[in-house]
Amino acid sequence: MDSTELTAGLMDNTEAAFEHLFKKHFRELHAYGFSLLKDWDAAEEIVQSLFLKLWEKNEWEHIQISIKSYLYKAVYHDCLNYIRRQKIHLKYEAHAVRNTNSRVDNTDGKIKLSELEQRLDIALDKLPEKCRAIFHLSRFEYLKYQEIANQLEISIKTVETHMVKALRILRKEMKDFLPVLAVMLFNLLRS
């Protein structure tokens, strides 16, 4: 299948053209992603997600460059986003450990804190990327909504919307740990 036939097949959303594209480029894109991330599984997931998004959206007519160049560029940007998310995650973990380990002395408290941190990590991973970034800037870097809006070049209303969404998701995901949080806060306030 030459590039003209491939492009026409992709625009018509034919399964054969998409399968050909996937088989032709998956290995090289996976290797490229691995070279950026040094994580075999994460690179594989990024490339698979890219192809899934392309299949679902079917917006081939918007691609102004060669399909191969587009795929490499998309993998590059997805890998950079993954690295950014990992950095935010590590920053949060360091922040959480620094702020809570000094306050929790007993073994039971440390076990509960560990469970709480794991659950919070899972909950944070469920946030959409933009929500997670805005939540991080607000709650861990202590930026005001206006500062976040200026930094991300979005409106304050968008920041507020993302924060409401993030808090709603986190509240839902953390509902089982609210009693533990209440007890831990009570114990911290007593000491």
How is this fold's topology laid out?
Layout: H1 3-11, H2 15-37, H3 40-57, H4 67-101, H5 107-125, H6 129-139, H7 145-152, H8 156-173, H9 178-190
Helix pairs in contact: 1-2, 2-3, 2-4, 3-4, 4-5, 5-8, 6-8, 7-8
Task: Give a short summary of the structure.
The chain has about 190 residues and is an all-alpha fold. It is built from 9 helices and no strands.
Distinctive features:
Rna Polymerase Sigma Factor, Chain: A; about 190 residues; Arc Repressor Mutant, subunit A; elongated; mainly alpha
Report on the architecture of this protein:
This protein has nine helices and no strands. It is mainly alpha-helical. Helix 4 (67-101) runs antiparallel to helix 5 (107-125) and helix 7 packs across helix 8 (156-173). The longest helix has 35 residues, at 67-101. The model has no long low-confidence stretch (mean pLDDT 78).
Number of domains: 2
Mean pLDDT: 78
The beta-strand count equals 0
Distance between the termini: 72 Å
Report the helical percentage.
over 70%
The biggest sheet amounts to:
none
